[in-house]
Backbone:
């Protein structure tokens, strides 16, 4: 049985380097690990408790939650927008946080990685995402980190899957996330 990791990408841009990093995760996943990129985050309305009631939850939010329920673990790919987490990623976290105490993240390991243009690779946004995930009930894997700086230059002509650092470090991240998922399932 393989470990299912759901990848949430915080950039909606077609040529997003974080999307490309998630695609690299799909291709570089070690044996026994399946990475699925969650599609449709742009279609999920901003979280609003008034529409989060049985019979009224928008279809895109239902699909997001169902994809999360099928996952054993989560790997978020976050760029840094104005020093913090992108709204689309925060919105997914908000939908996964409900119902309070039994939301989609509860009992599942979650790691945050990413790439950004700046010299630190988006660590502020990744830290903010970890904070929100922890409050939303996820088991944050604080020791699983991958922050790739200088994305615009570094990936201008190279897809992350062809970058030697990525091909070395990203599979290690996936192994850590999978191990945490297996440990959670055994508990």
Residues:
């Amino acid at each position: 049985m393989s470990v299912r990791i759901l990848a949430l990408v915080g950039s909606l841009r077609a040529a997003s380097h974080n999307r490309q990093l998630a695609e690299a995760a799909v291709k570089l996943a070690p044996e026994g690990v399946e990475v699925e990129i969650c599609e449709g985050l742009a279609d999920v309305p901003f979280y609003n408790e008034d529409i989060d009631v049985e019979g009224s939850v928008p279809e895109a939010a239902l699909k997001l939650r169902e994809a999360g329920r099928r996952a054993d673990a989560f790997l978020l790919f976050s760029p840094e927008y104005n020093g913090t987490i992108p709204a689309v990623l925060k919105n997914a976290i908000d939908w996964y946080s409900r119902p309070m105490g039994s939301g989609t993240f509860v009992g599942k390991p979650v790691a945050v990685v990413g790439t950004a243009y700046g010299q630190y690779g988006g660590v502020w946004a990744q830290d903010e995402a970890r904070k929100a995930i922890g409050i939303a009930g996820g088991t944050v894997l604080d020791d699983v980190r991958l922050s790739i700086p200088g994305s615009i230059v570094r990936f201008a002509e190279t897809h992350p899957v062809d970058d030697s650092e990525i091909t070395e470090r990203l599979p290690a991240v996936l192994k850590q996330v999978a191990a945490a998922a297996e440990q959670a399932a055994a508990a």
Q: What stands out?
A: The chain has a mean pLDDT of 96. The longest helix spans residues 164-186. The chain has one domain: 3-186.
